[in-house]
Amino acid sequence: MAREEPTALERFINGVLPENPIYRQLLGMCPVLAVTSAMKPAMTMAGATAFVLICANIVISLMRSLLKPHLRILVFTLTIATFVTIADKFLAAYVYEMSKQLGPYVPLIIVNCLIISRCEICASKQSVGVAAADAVGMSLGFALALASIATVREILGSGMWFGLRVLPGSWPGWGIMVLPPGAFLSLGLLLGAAEWVSRKRARTNLWRTVRMLWSWRR
Amino acid sequence: MGETQQKGGYIGQAWLVIVLGLLYGGVLAGVQTTLSGRAADNKKDETYSVIPSLVRGADETKTIELMVEGKNGKEARIYRAIGADASHKGWVVSAGGQGFADRIELLIGLDPALTTLTGLYVLEQKETPALGDRITEAGFRDRFSGKPADQSIVMVKSEPKAENEVRALTGATISSESVSAIVNDALANLREPIGRRAHSAAPGEASRETTG
Amino acid sequence: METLTSLILIFIGAALINNFVLHYFVGICPFLGVSRRVDTAFGMGCAVTFVISISALLNWTVTYFVLRPGAPLPAWVWQLAGGNPETQIDLSVLSYIIYIFVIASSVQFVEMYVRKFFPPLYRSFGVYLPLITTNCAILFGSLEIMKRLQDPTKLWGLHEALTLAVGGGIGFTIAISLMAGIREELDMADVPAPLKGAGIALIVAGIMAMGFMGFTGVEKGVASAIGALVP
């Protein structure tokens, strides 16, 4: 191996923030936009995705020595689809309300690029411990990102958070935030904000932005 | 690499996929047998649990699901609402149609003689939040209770004057009109077939005629 | 007549009102990734429309005859094997696995077929074919059709399933082409640095989604227009 593979701890930490699946890698955008109109469905989705990601990573890592290069994608898909079916049936049996609300987005976890890319990058090359740590880290990062968007949308859209009222009842509720356009706008602006914060020379960029805005005004 | 591929042949190549396929198939069969009953019950409970609020005095455990063929030739699902004393309390009709944004699925409660609406429940809708989705609120649904079932319901924007008029939601006229259109269509389509059912089988002794 | 009206409504619903990208958020990856130039975006849209229709055709067939609750084929096999004919066989637990394989293999075959027999067509959109196996829009189309085959009282026929798929594909093409047109212009605009790339693309998509919300309710008018045109 030419390059040293990251250790379990590095994989875990990377997943949460430095390589956050949504803000850094732009993976799995479809559930991020679709289920974040409130915290409850967003967290159910994060849980289901975490279950599939962790199980798939562990199983793939266990049989990584048996994988044939040209059949590996097939094996990944088969494994992921099985765990997604289990998650879907489980939700339908025990959390029916959420299962109804999430609808097709649970089966769409199968084509979530995040999971297949983790199988490919980490689980098919490294040991079970590392793969599990990677999956947990990535799931945590995914859940954090979903939570950030859902928080913005639910609070602005309905004045609630997790179904509990946080803004006074007189808050009008920006209907647009819980509708599809609100998803695109909040994710776009949050991506911009994350990018802005993470820039090393944030100050210079701030000044550049201010100058730019100033030049537009004139 | 090429040598091992030839030595293994197709089976050597694919044995992992085949074994996994069988293994996963077994796991899924297990999941299906343990969980699918529960999931189906959840779905049924959702309908059955609202039946007492649609037909007064109905007992959800006694209520029977029936399939009838409507005038349009399509099968429709109805429920014969039966009270705890085994008497026939009314009917619940499941109906759906186009709303403002997407399909709306309703449960409509009727008295045994099919003359009066006794309740309305919205099972599924994707109307605009805070405007059209207020059709799910009791304040709107209750406006249908006591309205005649043998005349067309008409949506009006002011206080209703005639017996068959119902006041529409402010800012959600199309959603309101969709609901009344679904109710009218379902009743026009199913009144006669249900009436025939009412005569053919005495309440209480009807067998379970469900298929799905 | 009624059938035609309902087909037109399904089509408008899938293409405009509940646009796959701007309402259901499926196919976001190519929508953001392959929307830099109009011609490539249009090619991608055509490839998606093509594959979504083929996979809808295959998946409708499989679901209708094998996978749905109360499907004829498993019941027939069960009876041949001497099972109790009253038993309800429900194979829907296998649907997701089967769908994804049908999609993956139909993409493979379509790619080989087009490359062999229609080289010009292949040059224009064949290169996108391998990319769209993991496009959510394709699986989503099949899932929407599957949803309509669960309740035996309102089964969808093949014509309805195909209309939904073609409508969804055309809706995707419209959305991605419009997006590419806007992004070509955006290249010349002075976008704040942190928003460059995906950020501004998402904001543009948000504004487009607002525009598409204006189509909500259009089908009522269309239905009455058809009713007025054809007595």
Label the overall shape of chain C.
globular
- How many strand segments of chain A? 2
Which structural class matches the secondary elements of chain A? mainly alpha
According to DSSP, the number of beta strands of chain C is 0
- Return the string of H and E elements of chain A: HHHHHHHEEHHH
Please tell me the overall pLDDT of chain A. 85
What quaternary form is this? heterotrimer
Give me the secondary-structure category of chain C: mainly alpha
Descriptive overview:
The complex is a heterotrimer of chains A (218), B (212) and C (231). Chain A contains ten helices and two strands. With 218 residues, chain A is mostly helical. Chain A has one domain (8-217). In chain A, strands 1-2 form a two-stranded antiparallel ribbon. The longest helix of chain A is centred in the middle third of the chain and has 31 residues, at 128-158. Chain A is globular and about 60 Å long. The model of chain A has no long low-confidence stretch (mean pLDDT 85). With 212 residues, chain B is α+β, with helices and mostly antiparallel strands. Chain B has two domains: 2-46; 54-201, no CATH class. Helix content of chain B is 39%, strand content 22%. Chain B has four helices and seven strands. By secondary structure, chain C is mainly α. Chain C has helices at 2-17, 28-33, 38-67, 72-80, 95-117, 119-125, 136-147, 158-186, 198-213, 218-229. In chain C, helix 1 (2-17) runs parallel beside helix 8 (158-186), helix 3 packs across helix 5 (95-117) and helix 7 packs antiparallel against helix 8. Chain C is globular and about 70 Å long. The mean pLDDT of chain C is 87. At the A-C interface, helix 2, helix 4, helix 9 and helix 10 of A face helix 2, helix 5, helix 7 and helix 9 of C.
